[in-house]
Design brief:
28% strand, alpha+beta
Length: 394
């Protein structure tokens, strides 16, 4: 549909999206989801419904000769009373795999979440139009990566030349599940999250099911992953189980087995990598839960502290060290009958020695430089020559 002389308006459909498992059509645009409808129906009260609708790793992909691209969006801005403001999400446009522009939506719906009162309320806001210009002539493959931490309804794509579906990418599909660290917490940009960095280095196609606060071995997440076509799979397990104080060691082992069993129902021989937690001094020896340290929030600082008692580890409470040992044991046991199951120690991605140069700013999440470090190390360990997810080895 033409709206301006020489311009084309293209509705946003599932065919334009990569990295999303569902596209919900609403009165105010199409909302990408990273969990399918059946899984969303089983989400308990909490934060997962928010996290799965934040489009980490989701991007529009198309081929065009356009030199200018506009995207109409309704972004959801989050406000947490009593805490530092949340920065606007970043949108990145790539041309033939190279960054060619960034944009932010300056306004949109406002979601106010009062953590003390346990309430949430949304105030509708206006549509924002993101503009990317000076893209150069000639046919090109374009991707627009959506913010990893800002739910975004997509209304329409406007271009000064027609848009076509991109050709098949030919890359292996890498399906990954993890916590807020995998979703991208504290990364600077959507292509700067460690899974995006690793995917680019490994030349694989990312489907990122990293959910802030919700890598909790949920059966509905395992079933969603079971049903997603994938050539390579990884699951990063640990930090959320500790910082939510969700379960004890007795339940942890069977829950891991159950999660892996479900994955194997749909992917019986797909290379599957189990990744243990990166170093986090907060919970290495001290169980959860994690609690927010409100001191300094008025100055824009946010930190976490561990509220558990180390003496309770003997009774089965989980720490990161306990989880690493148990994951290694489980993978060794299962790998005897599953040669495509592998283990990666998270300390190889970010260990105690890295903390001095790259401390976790809030004591829980890596910063932008650490995301890049983790992504590069993961790419070498997993996708590199001889790695368990090496593309050319299978």
């Amino acid at each position: 549909m033409n709206t301006r002389a020489g311009w084309t308006t293209t509705p946003v459909t599932a065919g334009l999206l990569r990295g999303a498992l569902d596209l919900e059509h609403t009165e105010r645009g199409a909302l990408p989801h990273r969990l399918p409808p059946r899984a969303r129906q089983q989400i308990p009260a909490g934060s997962l419904d928010l996290a799965e609708a934040q489009p980490s790793g989701v991007r529009l992909a198309f081929r065009t000769r356009a030199t200018t691209v506009e995207l109409d969006v309704v972004a959801t801005k989050r406000v947490y009373p009593g805490t530092p403001p949340v920065a606007d999400g970043v949108y990145e446009l790539l041309v033939n795999g190279r960054l060619a522009g960034t944009a932010r939506a300056p306004h949109g719906d406002v979601l106010t979440i009062d953590m003390a009162a346990g309430t949430a309320a949304t105030r509708p806001g206006p549509v924002a139009t993101l503009r990317f210009a000076g893209l150069g002539g000639g046919e090109k493959d374009v991707e627009i990566w959506l913010p990893y931490d800002e739910s975004t309804r997509l209304l329409a794509l406007h271009t000064d030349a027609p848009v076509h579906a991109p050709p098949p990418h030919g890359r292996k599909v890498w399906l990954h599940h993890g916590s807020s660290i995998s979703q991208g917490s504290n990364a600077a940009t959507p292509t700067g999250t460690w899974p995006a960095v690793a995917a680019a280095a490994g030349s694989v196609e990312l489907v990122n099911l990293g959910f802030g606060g919700n890598a909790l071995l949920d059966p509905f997440t395992a079933r969603a992953m079971r049903d997603v076509p994938a050539d390579l799979i990884s699951v990063k397990i640990g930090i959320n189980l500790v910082n939510t104080d969700l379960m004890r060691l007795r339940a942890f082992g069977p829950a891991v087995h159950g999660f892996l069993d479900t994955l194997r129902e749909g992917h019986p021989s797909t290379p599957l990598l189990v990744v243990s937690p990166i170093h986090c001094a907060l919970h290495e020896r001290t169980p959860g839960p994690s609690v927010m340290n409100v001191e300094g929030t008025g100055e824009g600082r946010l930190r976490f502290t561990a509220a558990g008692d180390p003496a309770e580890v003997a009774a089965g409470k989980l720490t990161l060290r306990v989880i690493r040992e148990e994951l290694a044991r489980i993978v060794r046991q299962r790998a005897a009958g599953d040669p495509n199951l592998h283990h990666l120690d998270g300390l190889a991605l970010y260990g105690e020695a890295d903390e001095a140069d790259l401390p976790l700013p809030d004591d829980l999440h890596p910063d932008a430089a650490t995301h890049r470090l983790i992504g590069e190390r993961f790419a070498r360990a997993a996708f590199g020559s001889g790695g368990p997810l090496a593309v050319g080895s299978r």
